[in-house]
Amino acid sequence: MRSARKRFIHRGAALLAVAIMLVIADVAGKSVPAALLMATMQASLRTVAGEDAPLEVLVPRLNRYACAHSLDGRRFTTAVLGQYQPGTGTLTYVNAGHNAPVLRRANGTLEELNKGGLPLGIESNAPYEIGLTSLHPGDVLIFFTDGCIEAFNAAGDEFGSLRWLAAIRALPSGTAQESLHYLMRQVDEFVGATRQADDITCMIFRCK
């Protein structure tokens, strides 16, 4: 959903017995129709997730729901959905046409979570590939919307993927909240006082 707001989310992973659901999503379009679709998508997700459904069941169900409300594909939703198992460090995920989250390993190397398929709401029978990775102490997982890399300054220059990845590589050690503030500060210093046309949303998941 397009707006000029910033939404900052941080989360540190503790050793819990239950799986942790991680989701970021962005509805194409603006104004009330997009907001309503996002609200109903959230309600549908809560219902399905409450059934402890695996991603191979959850994502197709969400996609069929999105297709029924997408106005022939004009109101599609990009999303990344992940299920993290703290006991094993395993993360399964599906990237439905969203900006690929970046996994920064403790040694500084970067990996992109790009396995999945089409945005939700495009094709009711679309296949989705399940991605699988493992998180280890010191790893940081960064979810973000396109507003982060498309943020622009007074000259009209975009922050861009190269600057975003460089900022992630330079992340100092610390908490998820400190990592989030560091990344958002890089974007803020670049754009200055220039009013943005899109959401800038970032979610940090740091494995302790």
Describe the protein:
- The chain has 208 residues and is of the alpha+beta class.
- The protein has one domain (6-207): PPM-type phosphatase domain (Phosphatase 2c, domain 1, 4-Layer Sandwich).
- The protein is 30% helix and 27% strand.
- The protein is built from five helices and ten strands.
- The chain has helices spanning 31-49, 55-68, 146-149, 160-169, 176-191, and strands spanning 6-13, 20-27, 77-85, 90-96, 102-104, 110-112, 116-117, 131-134, 140-144, 200-207.
- It has a five-stranded mixed β-sheet.
- Helix 1 (31-49) runs antiparallel to helix 2.
- It is globular and about 40 Å long.
Radius of gyration: 17 Å
How would you spell out the order of helices and strands? EEHHEEEEEEEHHHE
Provide mean pLDDT, rounded: 87
Instruction: Determine the N-to-C terminus distance.
Output: 32 Å
CATH class: Alpha Beta
- Tell me the strand percentage band: 25-35%
Strand tally, please?
A: 10
| CATH architecture type | 4-Layer Sandwich
> What order do the strands of the largest sheet run in, or round the barrel if closed?
1-10-9-5-6
Uncertain runs are 1-5, 12-17
> In one word, what is the shape?
globular
Provide the number of structural domains. 1
- Give the CATH H-level superfamily: PPM-type phosphatase domain
Instruction: Determine the structural class based on helices, strands and strand pairing.
Output: alpha+beta
Largest sheet properties: 5 strands, mixed
Percentage of residues in helical conformation: 25-40%
